[in-house]
Write a structure and sequence with these properties.
By secondary structure, the chain is mainly beta. It is built from 1 helix and 8 strands; from the N terminus they run αββββββββ. The longest helix has 16 residues, at 2-17.
């Protein structure tokens, strides 16, 4: 708090004298959030049905259909979602590179792929 008052006082003094003051950088101890990518489930299809993302990306599926869907990893590389009703979401953060094939276990003709680089 004392440092903040000192910085404010110095800024006022420098404004009066016409001297520029460098801005103070905010410090955050919070870890960076993972980037997020969206997949919509609409008309019994994943959109997009294939995507390439960097390691650390959080992928979020959102069900836009009136029917439930279950996101299932073809190689059991990530946990299966619960049944997603309309507007429900399911998310997985991909921490390792690889190709992740998935499908809807209720409607197996619905397939998708996530490529993590």
């Amino acid at each position: 708090m004392k440092a903040l008052r000192h910085a404010a006082a110095m800024s006022m003094l420098c404004l009066c004298c016409g001297v520029a003051v460098p801005a103070m950088a905010a410090k955050s101890d919070a870890p960076p959030k993972a980037a997020a990518s969206q997949i919509e489930i609409r008309n019994f299809a994943f959109a997009p049905n294939s995507m390439t993302v960097p390691v650390g990306t959080r992928v979020v599926w959102t069900n836009r259909d009136e029917e439930p869907h279950v996101i299932t990893s073809a190689g059991k590389q990530f946990a299966t979602s619960p049944a997603l009703d309309t507007s429900d979401t399911y998310a997985v953060t991909f921490s390792k590179p690889g190709t992740y094939a998935y499908y809807c276990s209720i409607h197996p003709m619905m397939v998708g792929t996530i490529i993590v680089q």
